[in-house]
Specification:
By secondary structure, the chain is α+β, with helices and mostly antiparallel strands. The chain is built from 8 helices and 5 strands; from the N terminus they run αβααββαβαααβα. A 3-stranded antiparallel beta sheet has the order 1-2-3, covered by helices on one side. It has a two-stranded parallel sheet with strand order 4-5.
Length: 194
């Protein structure tokens, strides 16, 4: 075998999938699924990774979803890059909701002011994925507005606290009514089957 073909084989053996991307909650990395099996397949010591991650995120409020890039090296060591919290987390926090709309486009889960979107964009502009592409703040705002739309969050020019409180009360009443209607429909189908 010639030196060139040996070099070509060595290049082919280099794992192009040496980057693991995941979203891990701050301070809550655990050796169990889903993170444990992924790291175990690559030969990364799971306990050590969890300890490193939890140590590096101890200053952040526990439970915040953080995008993580793990660069796996051939000697089974790794480099850990932790990004800013996800856009959906920021939007849900700004809207004061736990989860997005069940029927996107048909219902509004919450409302966020343009100012809040701009502030989120300024934080996310510091993220590596936007810095590498040299993305303008305007494009980051458009991306955030798209994420808000997919979560069922309405962007409004200005939002007073009283107006938003009234909106959330109406939404809560509607969700309760929908849940009761769904329960009644489920009960009606079970009684028909008997």
């Amino acid at each position: 075998m010639s030196k060139i073909s040996k070099a070509a084989k060595a290049v082919k053996k280099v794992d192009v999938n040496n980057v693991i991307r995941a979203i891990v909650r701050s301070g809550q990395a655990a050796p169990g699924p889903p993170l444990g099996p992924i790291l175990g397949q690559r030969g990364i010591p799971i306990g050590q990774f969890c300890k490193d991650f939890n140590e590096r995120t101890k200053e952040i409020k526990e439970g915040i979803p953080l995008p993580v890039k793990i660069h796996v090296k051939p000697d089974r060591t790794y480099d850990l890059q932790i990004g800013q919290p996800t856009v959906s987390y920021f939007l849900k926090q700004a809207a004061g909701i736990a989860k997005g709309a069940a029927k996107t486009g048909h219902e509004t889960a919450g409302k966020v002011s343009v100012r809040a979107v701009y502030e989120i964009a300024q934080v996310k502009a510091q993220d590596e994925c936007f810095k590498i592409r040299n993305t303008s703040l305007q494009n980051i705002v458009k991306s955030i507005i798209g994420s808000a739309r997919s979560l069922g969050i309405q962007i409004v020019p200005d939002l007073s606290a009283d107006e938003y409180r009234e909106f959330m009360l109406r939404r809560e009443e509607k969700l309760k009514a929908d849940a009761e209607a769904a329960a009644a429909a489920a009960e009606a189908t079970t009684t028909k089957k008997k």
